[in-house]
Amino acid sequence: MLACPSKITAQQTFRVNNGSTKYDVKFTIPCSDYTCSGEAIVSMVVKSTDIVVIQMTFKNVDFGLTKPLDTLLAQSTTGNIIHFRDFESPIICADFDFDGYEDIAIPTKDTNCIFTDGATFDIYLFKPTENRFKPEQNRYILHNKLTELQHNSTAIVGVNREKKRLIYYAKEDCCWMSISEYIWLGKGATKRLRVVSEYSVEDDYPNKNVTEIRHKFVNGKWVKKVKKYTNTRQ
Fold it and tell me: How many domains does the chain have?
């Protein structure tokens, strides 16, 4: 569960060296003991340099630290910049729409999220500038549907690059879970998400009630096939 931030002490700067294949991610945000929360300045920096190619400001960013802030500062070998490995970073880089460009997921506190045990992320898709002489105009654009789906899940969206599918996992209490897979349809402004499979399990001891739903495009329309069955513990 994301902790409520305590008294903010100071702005802190973090750098992730291997979270992206193309850039280092550098971000500055107010932090306290175990929490960073508030407005964050996020920069994409050319690897092995300090050249910033994209810089944006994100509000309502919120994430916890695995170690106290003073410990991270004491362990830093670069003075005022704390370095994260990719699996430690709260900012996630991945190609969520399979267009060849890395997108980003920004951690944020969502007070409306029904799954309070999982972090929530706002997902931004990369939009390259049409003017190749002005790379600073590159931007990340919030994708509302991706973000909405993630806020209703318990984990960051999974990316299946081979099948070009996005995988969402959701869980409620002890007795219900689901896995849904989405594909992208269309191109450009008409590009949209479409669910292609849904798998859910409701644990009603000693039975597990399973529902499988497959969506297929047949003869010009989408057809849904539902299969329900019960597994009984012996």
Answer: 1
